[in-house]
Structures are given as structure tokens and as C-alpha cells.
Amino acid sequence: xxxxxxxxxxxxxxxxxxxxxxxxxxxxxxxxxxxxxxxxxxxxxxxxxxxxxxxxxxxxxxxxxxxxxxxxxxxxxxxxxxxxxxxxxxxxxxxxxxxxxxxxxxxxxxxxxxxxxxxxxxxxxxxxxxxxxxxxx
Length: 137
Known about the structure:
Radius of gyration: 22 Å
Strand content: 15-25%
Structural class: alpha+beta
Largest sheet: 2 strands, antiparallel
Number of strands: 4
């Protein structure tokens, strides 16, 4: 592999993009209401795996991070008393996802910072490669 730092950072970009997509999906469904007979919206959580080691990244072998899977939150959600809601049961209860906006915003900020860090690695590696090529001229 000619430019292993690009591949390593690109794998991080993919991971953090998937994480941001999952958080965006969670935030979009934060106020999704279901009847008590249905499952609540289940928040998505990205499971990440390391690929290779630092030494493999230097030699050009596959290294970085990858999405190992997506896990789902509790389908039970939380019950809220809202007798005026059209989906309310006989006791006036409806089901909301068990998510917190503050937690989701924190997750989004962490994922954005990781994405930005990997972009910075790509920028620095590109600059270093360009400098190395200009030395040979």
C-alpha cells in the first residue's frame, strides 16, 4: 500500500460517519410515540472494532477501525401518562423511546470530533506527501 495513513484515516471517517448517522436517527426519533401495545423506537448504538495494530498501519497492511455492528436499545422504552394523546391506552399511557437529548448531543459531538480528527490526519498526510514529492523535483 503506497499511502497507508490515508487508508487508516479513511476507515476512521467511515466509522465516525456511521456513528453520526446513528445519532441523527436517534435524535430524529426522540419524540416518536407508540401505543403501549407496540415496541418503542429502539436507539441505535454503533459497535466499533480495531483493525490491525499500529505496526500494520506503518507497513501498509489493513489497519484502522471498522463498524462491527449496530446494537439496539431497549424496546420497552418509557411509559408516559398522556391521556389526551390519540395513541393513549385506557389508562392514558403512551410509550416513548428511552433516550435523552443531552446524551445524544454528547454522542454527536464526540463523533464529530473523531470525524474532524481523521480529516486532519488526511490533510497532514497529504501535505507531507506533497512536500516529499517537491523535494524530488
